[in-house]
Design brief:
Radius of gyration: 16 Å
Oligomer: single chain
Helix content: over 70%
Low-confidence stretches: none
Shape: elongated
Number of strands: 0
Largest sheet: none
Strand content: under 5%
Number of domains: 1
Structural class: mainly alpha
Number of helices: 7
Order of helices and strands: HHHHHHH
């Protein structure tokens, strides 16, 4: 019972840390911040995604691997590799279509970065409960 409450809280703090590291007004701003880590070392880029490692640790600690946890893990993996692909397109290949440039310039609402913190801990609580 304790783990059902403590582990989602740990994930919440990891998500809040991740959101604070990536917070920006546009998607291009987010990519700029992430590219600064990516350019130094790709492993540093992976280290600033702590919620992914928290989910992996929770799976190993609890032994629970149901649909909800796999859903969280799949979204985290998709998120990381999507950002890597955008970094590759924008900064390494420098091939940005007009449509992608418009998307990168969109303003991101402040609550957008808190969506992960609002969603993943509750799904994890459901998965562990």
């Amino acid at each position: 019972m304790e783990n059902t409450l403590i582990l989602p809280l740990i994930l919440l703090f990891a998500e809040l840390f991740e959101a604070s590291m990536q917070r920006s007004q546009t998607l291009l701003g987010v990519l700029e911040k992430l590219y600064s880590y990516y350019a130094k070392n790709i492993f540093l880029f992976f280290l600033i995604q702590p919620s992914f490692y928290v989910v992996i640790g929770i799976i190993m600690f609890t032994g629970v691997l149901n649909f909800s946890i796999v859903f969280i893990l799949a979204l985290k993996i998709f998120d990381m590799f999507y950002k890597m692909e955008l970094i590759k397109k924008v900064y390494l290949e420098r091939q940005v279509s007009q449509e992608l440039a418009e998307i990168l310039a969109w303003r991101i609402p402040p609550y957008f970065f808190l969506m992960g913190a609002g969603l993943y801990p509750f799904v994890l609580y459901y998965a562990l409960g």
